[in-house]
Amino acid sequence: MSEIRNVLLVGATGLIGTKVMEASRELPWLHLIALTRREAPMPPGVRMEMLVAPTSGWPAAIAALEPDAVICALGTTIKKAGSEEAFREVDYDLVLMVARAAKEAAVQNFVLISSVGADAHAKAFYLRVKGEIEAAVTKVKLRRLDILRPGLLRGARDGDLRPLEQLGKIASPMADLFLHGDKRRYRSISGVTVAAGAIQCAREKAQGRYQHDNDSIHRFARRLADAE
């Protein structure tokens, strides 16, 4: 039987966070704790802890919890945030704060959910911020850092309708057929698969920095399934 692993989830209200919570139902070795700014509904049948605290109190909470691993699925949209500045406060400032707190708490594994195309020099603001936070978290020098760069995410988002994304999901089965070679990383991928890949990364033993595109995420998701 696998040893119990304490995993802290930040970003529980999003698609990946929700799927991580759902997956925990089938993983007896996973002791999941969610850290949120506000109370969030738990999927039916999930047994876990949820700590609600203002973001200013997150570093202290992480220090007190001393988790073995952190899955950081924080993320918003400019429309939802209201401005580029507010978007950056979540996707950069808050993520970096969590990473630094994890370092101080001697967290063994840090899993960052990023995005395909993340590039600190990208013209697109969203991808540029994603690239900048990848670089910033890398400089924190965590024991093990896994950066997941999924393609178009498939899965329902409660209360977060994104018309262009919904259109992309409809077209993705056909579009995926034309994405080969290096372009495979742009294929669509289910939130369930990304969550499974993130959970597996949170239990890996080797140290270092690792970056995962769609194919790698699928491999880690299969490893999780094969291990149970």
List the topology elements.
Elements: E1 5-10, H1 15-23, E2 30-36, E3 49-52, H2 58-65, E4 69-72, H3 78-81, H4 84-104, E5 109-113, H5 125-139, E6 144-148, E7 153-154, H6 163-176, E8 189-190, H7 191-201, E9 208-212, H8 214-227
Parallel strand pairs: 1-2, 1-4, 2-3, 4-5, 5-6, 6-9, 7-8
Helix pairs in contact: 1-7, 2-4, 4-5, 7-8
What does this structure look like?
This protein has 228 residues and is of the alpha/beta class. The protein has one domain (5-152, 189-227): NAD(P)-binding Rossmann-like Domain (Rossmann fold, 3-Layer(aba) Sandwich), CATH 3.40.50.720. Helices cover 42% and strands 18% of the residues. It is built from 8 helices and 9 strands. The chain has helices at residues 15-23, 58-65, 78-81, 84-104, 125-139, 163-176, 191-201, 214-227; strands spanning 5-10, 30-36, 49-52, 69-72, 109-113, 144-148, 153-154, 189-190, 208-212. It has a 7-stranded parallel beta sheet with strand order 3-2-1-4-5-6-9, with helices on both faces. Strands 7-8 form a two-stranded parallel ribbon. The longest helix has 21 residues, at 84-104. The chain is globular and about 45 Å long. The relative contact order is 0.15.
Which descriptors would you attach to this protein?
single chain; 228 residues; alpha/beta; Rossmann fold; seven-stranded parallel β-sheet; two-stranded parallel ribbon; 8 helices; globular
Summary of the model, kept short:
This protein has 228 residues and is α/β, with parallel strands linked by helices. It has helices spanning 15-23, 58-65, 78-81, 84-104, 125-139, 163-176, 191-201, 214-227, and strands at residues 5-10, 30-36, 49-52, 69-72, 109-113, 144-148, 153-154, 189-190, 208-212. It has one domain: NAD(P)-binding Rossmann-like Domain (Rossmann fold).
